[in-house]
UniProtKB/TrEMBL annotation:
Keyword flag Disulfide bond: no
Alphabetized UniProt keyword annotations: Membrane, Transmembrane, Transmembrane helix
Full protein name: Protein DETOXIFICATION
Annotated source species: Cinchona calisaya
Primary residence: membrane
Lineage: Eukaryota, Viridiplantae, Streptophyta, Embryophyta, Tracheophyta
Length: 520
């Protein structure tokens, strides 16, 4: 059994010197070739803050230490998310220079068809945030590779039927009420984007696998290279050579496959040590429990994406639909950029919570949630403030149509509020703790029982148009935020640490973390 007073992720079997105290309280990544890279923190579990036995100075010291740990993970994760999101965003910028129909085409395909597929695959892959993170914290390093292989199997299996949505994209969009022009063009574009789904199925498990080991800098470098090449090729093929939408599809598919293959080769090269045990038939065992958690993760992740998708589809039924959808796509694009900060914090907090719970440090997990909540809220407020200051300027980057730019200007205040909520890493906390099933039910109620119906009512009954739809989206997100914050504040984190141990046992691992008796 592990001594609970040892440093986080300390493992004397992997070339770590337990007597080295030179870098006390600083986050370091062990890179010896004979070991799995790990974060080593020369510290013990933090003291109970709510018992009055910690001074303000000690609290600020703990806050600063935790903030460094979070930024070590969040900084590269945010950069990676921005680069990956930039692939689609740059494509939309180039398409906007071709015309309003082309911009709406890529927006609808990306939001509805590709967005639906990505949401399912990303959600299914989010089970690894719980399992790989907690296994890493519990020092079950070999299980990380097994879990990743299970996820590969599930995601590629699910990606096959998803391709029918791409094949029949035109018919699906017409059924959903999109205009004939947009349906035809978006359906054609969707056919060209089928390879992207299998790149997602390969890349998403790799990303979660590497995140759990705090190998975030490597992913950032790969994403940066992909974005630079994508931006140049996008401009060259779409605008300079005049290939238009076929060129956009070629560049997008190539960029996502580059990321997937680069991460795959990095892992296969042996850079992750014992975390990658090689391909194993063990990956095909215990699939039922793994699949159950994957489905819950998918529902939790997808419901938020589907709410955005519903707004885009409903906007297609309004007057002057092409302008409305184009303006809405620009706002969603900006929201997506800002959400990359939230995505980075989600990745960081899921790693911190899952690692700490897997190690048995439940107080440290709870404290990390508080630190990330504070810093992510400040970032959300900053983004919203800057956007409001630039509300007259930024629409020009996406469209030359005056009607589109004016509508974006009017939607900017609602967009600012959405950005604040989007920066909160609530899904990351849920994934790290293994609460996906419970949060999925809350998301369903908040988004589709309250939020979306309210938006439809405001849009059509009170003739508020796309603003009414955004009101509904804001209501859903607000209710979901309050609900998850209540769950976090009322959670018994000691029990969550025990639950992490049991989850690993049920899915093929063993646990070593010793949990304290005096948890508060």
């Amino acid at each position: 059994m592990e001594d609970y007073e040892q440093p986080l992720l300390f493992n004397s079997n992997y070339c770590h010197d337990p007597m080295n105290q030179e870098n006390n309280n600083y986050l370091i990544s062990q890179r010896e070739p004979c070991s799995i890279p790990s974060i080593s923190l020369n510290e013990t579990e933090i003291s109970p803050i709510n018992h009055g036995n910690i001074s303000t100075a000690d609290f600020l010291k703990e806050f600063y230490i935790e903030l460094k740990k979070v930024w070590y993970l969040a900084g590269p994760s945010i950069f990676t998310s921005v680069c990956q999101y930039g692939l689609g965003a740059f494509t939309q910028i180039f398409a906007g220079q071709l015309g309003t129909v082309q911009l709406a085409t890529i927006s609808v395909e990306n939001s509805v068809i590709a967005g639906f597929g990505y949401g399912i695959l990303s959600g299914l892959g989010s089970a690894l945030e719980t399992l790989c993170g907690q296994a890493y914290g519990a020092k079950q390093y070999g299980m990380l590779g097994i879990y990743m292989q299970r996820s590969w199997f599930i995601l590629n299996t699910v990606a096959l039927p998803i391709t029918f949505l791409f094949i029949f994209g035109t018919q699906v969009l017409k059924f959903l009420g999109q205009t004939p022009t947009i349906s035809k063009e978006a359906g054609k574009f969707a056919m060209w984007m089928i390879p992207q789904q299998f790149a997602y199925a390969m890349m998403i498990p790799l990303t979660k696998f590497l995140q759990a080991q705090s190998r975030v800098m490597e992913m950032a470098i790969i994403a940066a290279i992909a974005l630079c090449v994508h931006a140049f090729l996008g401009w060259f093929l779409i605008l300079n050579l005049g290939w238009g939408l076929p060129g956009a599809a070629l560049v997008l598919n190539g960029s996502w496959w580059f990321i997937a293959l680069a991460q795959f080769l990095y892992v296969m090269a042996g850079s992750c040590g014992v975390a990658w045990p090689g391909f194993s038939w063990k990956a095909l065992t215990n699939l039922s429990g793994f699949l159950k958690l994957s489905i819950s993760s998918a529902l939790m992740e997808c419901l938020g994406m589907w709410q955005l998708m519903a707004v885009v589809l409903l906007a297609g039924h309004l007057k002057n639909a092409e302008v409305t959808v184009a303006a809405l796509s620009i706002c969603i694009n900006i929201l997506g950029w800002a959400s990359m900060v939230g995505s980075g914090f989600n990745a960081a907090i899921s790693v911190r919570v899952s690692n700490e719970l897997g190690s048995g440090r439940s107080r440290a997990a709870k404290f990390s949630v508080m630190v990330v909540g504070v810093i992510s809220t400040l970032f959300g407020l900053l983004f919203a403030f800057v956007l409001l200051l630039q509300r007259k300027q930024y629409p020009t980057l996406f469209s030359t149509d005056n009607e589109v730019k004016h509508l974006v200007y009017e939607l900017t205040p609602y967009l600012g509020l959405s950005i604040i909520f989007a920066c909160l890493p609530l899904n990351g906390v849920a994934a790290g703790a293994g609460w996906q099933n419970f949060v999925a039910y809350m998301n369903l109620g908040c988004y589709f029982i309250f939020g979306t119906p309210f938006g439809i009512l405001m849009c059509y009954k009170f003739d508020m148009g796309v603003k009414g739809l955004w009101y509904g989206m804001l209501l859903g997100v607000f209710l979901q935020t309050i609900a998850v914050l209540l769950v976090i504040s009322l959670a018994n984190w000691k029990k969550e640490a025990y639950a992490a141990q049991e989850r690993l046992k049920q899915l093929g691992g063993e646990t070593q973390a010793q949990l304290p008796d005096d948890e508060n």
